[in-house]
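dumping this here before i forget
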Amino acid sequence: MITKAKHTPMPWRLEMRGDVWSVIGAGELPICTFPPTVPELAEEQITNMNLVKAAPVLLDALVALHRICRDCDLEHEAERPTEEQYAAAMDAAEAALAAVGPNARTQPPP
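structure:
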């Protein structure tokens, strides 16, 4: 069963409005705003903004990977994903991580 997302539709983008950054969704709807960046925390703040902006892409990638993993279970053996479906889910995950930016954690914590 596929349900319709209840969040603001994509695309989401970052935009400077006045002296604050905002994440803007489809239909020009502001989703959230961030306070002005502090120089010593700017890199972290920008990464956080990109993480919020990428939320719908990350959610889509997580759903795709969950479906692939679930369908690898023995009880779903007849529905096993094809190599192409697996590759597409992994590509979506890579694209989602790239949407967060170069400072996204791509390795599990130690």
